[in-house]
Design a protein that fits this description.
mainly beta; Jelly Rolls; TIM Barrel; Immunoglobulin-like; 4 helices; Pol/histidinol_Pase-like; PHP_domain; Pol/His_phosphatase_N
Length: about 425
């Protein structure tokens, strides 16, 4: 278990002598794109062999088309599934024959030497962090899409969902020149409750509803188009979810904005669901709309264990319950693991051992670390130092185990939730076979 996983990388260097007679022609420098690449960085330089300075342009192609061209304007670029340097197309980095492209615009009589360095960054399962509930000027927020992305990038976050109310225009205008992954989102907003539709650009054609049947139809439509459905702030004082909890949904937002009584009510409800045997993934979201002293981007911050930095991988990770929520991107961190199983997984009866490794890090003196099962609080540890905490816990007879970390915040003058994990579940006898 590791909060910061080192991504696997490899580097290849290619050289090509370009002769005077190749001037005004296009030169390809072929290379093989390996399997499992998530991102590439390409840089080049050229050395003239004579007094005349060479002018060599830069671009790239994949196995079927040109994917980008910057001429002589850039000496390097990056490409990933979700983003790329301007002039280059984001998208899949399929394995096979690729080539760096050069236009030999000017070549000295003596020729020149071009050196291209390609760094391959591979898909690496790791923790990614971000905000699943934000707003912009595309509904009732004041932030531009670019401002939202820039703030998230400054926080070191990996993804954002801009879930504007009953509109999809934000999904069609996402900024491309950012390291932050854009998860398409819409907040389905009714007079009796809100829910987020995540992962598809256009989850419904008309948001208007007049009753329960209409709501259920919208939810079915969104799901049929591939959206993941989150019930937002279901126990809010102003806009609770009043359409019932039997409607189609995938996850529940148990932490919305700063920790408050409404979040505590949803946390208690979720604990009841878990204790009754339901396996329901919990997420958080800031619900930020505009600059505010308390409601801020990635507060809370949702961490997802994902196979790669793609919309599909992040949503799949949440679906598996591989999720931790912290009050901020730099909040305390916690994990539970048993053999190869992590939170969200179900440890089978056939597992060789069902002892759970519990780990918490980035703790402050005075933090309270709670281990909770279907029976309630099983263990409470008051931390007397700065750092980390680790122990092994028996799981016999438990439906699940999860962790909460509580911290005293001077600004609020009280203990508030600082981190919360999704549960690690345990197979019961009735489930065997």
């Amino acid at each position: 278990m590791a909060k910061n996983t080192e991504r696997r990388r490899s580097t290849a260097v290619y050289t090509r002598q370009i002769k005077k007679e190749e001037q005004s022609g296009y030169v390809e420098l072929p290379f093989e794109m390996p399997e499992g690449v998530e991102e590439i960085h390409v840089a080049y330089e050229f050395v003239s062999h004579g007094e005349t300075k060479a002018v060599i342009d830069l671009g790239i192609r994949d196995g079927s088309r040109v994917r980008g061209w910057s001429g002589g304007a850039r000496s390097e670029f990056r490409m990933a599934r979700h983003a790329a340097t301007p002039g280059y197309m984001p998208g899949p980095l399929e394995p096979g024959g690729w080539a760096v492209l050069h236009n030999a615009y000017k070549v000295p009589e003596e020729g020149c030497l071009v050196t291209v360095t390609i760094e391959f960054i591979y898909k690496t399962p790791r923790w990614l962090k971000g905000d699943l509930h934000t707003h912009s000027e595309h509904s009732d927020g004041s932030f531009t899409l670019e401002e939202n992305a820039a703030i998230m990038e400054s926080l070191g976050c990996d993804f954002i969902a801009m879930t504007d109310h009953n509109t999809i225009s934000q999904n069609l205008a996402y900024p491309r020149h950012t390291n932050v992954l854009m998860i398409p989102g819409t907040e389905f907003t009714t007079n009796f409750g809100h829910s987020n539709f995540l992962g598809v650009t256009d989850p419904m054609d008309d948001f208007r509803v007049s009753g329960q049947a209409d709501v259920e139809e919208k939810l079915r439509t969104a799901r049929s188009r591939g959206a993941k459905i989150v019930l937002n702030h279901p126990h809010c004082d102003w806009c609770p979810w009043e359409w019932g909890f039997s409607v189609e949904h995938d996850w529940v937002e148990i932490w919305n904005g700063p920790w408050s009584a409404r979040n505590a009510r949803t946390l208690a409800w979720w604990q009841e669901q878990l204790a009754a045997g339901r396996r329901l993934a919990a997420v958080g979201g800031s619900d930020v709309h505009r600059p505010d002293p308390f409601v801020k981007h990635a507060m809370p911050c949702t961490w997802v264990w994902a196979e790669s930095k793609t919309v599909e991988s992040i949503l799949a990770g949440i679906d598996r319950g591989h999720v931790l929520i912290t009050y901020a991107p730099d909040g305390p961190f916690s994990e539970l693991g048993c053999e190869a199983y992590r939170m969200g997984d179900v440890v089978p009866l056939a597992a060789k051992q069902r002892e759970v490794l519990v780990r918490a890090e980035d703790l402050h003196s005075g933090d309270r670390v709670l281990l909770i099962s279907d029976r309630g609080v099983e263990r409470e540890t008051v931390v007397a130092y700065e750092g980390s905490l680790e122990w092994k816990e028996a799981s016999e007879g438990r439906l699940f185990l999860r962790v909460e970390i509580w911290r005293y915040f001077e600004e609020a003058g009280e203990m508030l939730l600082a981190a919360l994990t999704n549960p690690l579940y345990f197979e019961r006898l009735s489930e065997e076979g």
